[in-house]
Amino acid sequence: MKRIIAAVMSAVMLVSMTACGGKKESPEGSGKKTVGIAMPSVKLPRWNSDGDYLKSLFEKSGYEVKLVYSDNDSARQNNDIISMLNEDVDLLLIAAVDGKSLSASLDEAKKKEVPVVAYDRLIMNTNAVTYYVTFDNKEVGRMQGSYVRDKLDLDNSRGTFNIEFLSGDIADNNSKYVYDGAYEVLKDYIASGKVIIPSGMTTLAQTYIARWDTGVAKNVLKLRLNKYYSDTRLDAVICASDSLALGALEALDEIYKVNSQPIVTGQDGDVNNIKELVDGKQSMTIFKNIRDEASVALEVCKKILNGEVPTGKLVDSLAVDVTYDSESYYNDVKFVQTYLLRPMVITKENLQVMVNSGLYQWDQENKYLEQIMKE
Ligand code: BGC
Predict the structure, then answer these.
(1) 338 within ligand 1 shell (Cβ under 6 A)
(2) Which of 151, 157, 169, 237 lies deepest, with the highest CB count within 10 Å?
(3) Is the four-CA dihedral 272, 277, 281, 284 of positive or negative sign?
(4) How confident is the model at residue 25 (pLDDT cuts 50, 70, 90)?
(5) Which domain holds residue 114?
C-alpha cells in the first residue's frame, strides 16, 4: 500500500513539476526545451560514446542539449549540474560518478522543480529521481560468472581452479550488481573449494578498483601476481569492465610467466578490447547497445517533458528489448521506476552482432572493429 501511495505521490509531484517547472523558452527564444546531460568522464570510452550519441539523438528530436563530463569527480559533477540548473535546463539526465554524493545538486534540482532521470547508474538517497534507464547489471555479472564456469567446466573437470576478481568502483552503484551476479554463479564452487581465490580478496570491498581505472587495475593485479602466482596457475580474472580487463592484460603481459593463459572477462565492447578478443587475449565482453539505452532514455524524457507520466506501458511502444520494473531498484528512499535492457555476451565468434547494431563496422582488413560514433 505504502508503495502505491508513494508511486501516486511521485506521479502527482512529477506532473506538477513538469507543469510548472523549468523554463518555458530557451534563452535564445527558440522555444525549444533544454536537456542537461551529465556523464561521468571522458576518460572511459563508454561515456564518450553515450554522451555523443545522447546529444545527437536529443538534438535530432528537437531539444537543445547541454552535455557535461566531470572527470570522474563527484564534487565536480555536483558543480557541473548546478551550473546547468543555473542555465535553465528543463530536465536532467545523469550518469552519476558517485550515486551517493549528488544531494547538493539534486536538492537544487528539486528547488527549481527540474525532473531528474538516472541514466545507467542509479542515484541513491534522494526522492528527486523518479525514473531510471539501465541494463540489467546483475545479469552482466551472471554472464561473466557463467562464462568462467562453463569455460573451466567446473561441474565436470577434475582439480581446482584459481581465480581473481577485479571489480568496479565502489562509488558506482552498478558495481555491486555486477559483482553480486558473478559471485552468485561461483559461490558454491568457492565454498566447496573447487574454485580458490589465492589472494583471499573475495568481497566487493576488497576487490573494487577506484574510478574503474585501467592503471589501478594493472597495479592491483601485478601485486597479486607477484605475491601468489610466481609459479601458480591463474585460471581466470573476472574483470567487471573492459577498462579493468585492459589493466589485467597489461599486468599479465608484464609479469605472469606461468605457461597458461587465464580467462579474462570484460564489459562494454570497447574497440581496444575487441582487438584483444580478436587476438585471443581477452576471452569475452558484454555488449550493451547504447543506442537502445539512449532511445529508451529519450522516450522517458520526452514523456516527462510533454507533461505526461511514463509508466510500464511505455515498453509496449518501444522497438527495443526492455522491461519495466518498479519493485527492484530501491535507492534507500524509494523504489525508482526502472526501464531495464538486456546485455549480451560477445566473444570473437559473434562480433558480427555488434556490427549489426549499427554502432560498429569492420576495419579495412575485416579484422578488428571500428566504432561509428554518430549516426
Ligand atoms: C557501466 C559500465 C561501465 C562502467 C565504467 C558502469 O556504471 O554500467 O558499462 O563499464 O560504469 O565506466
Answers:
(1) no
(2) 237
(3) positive
(4) very low
(5) 24-135+289-342
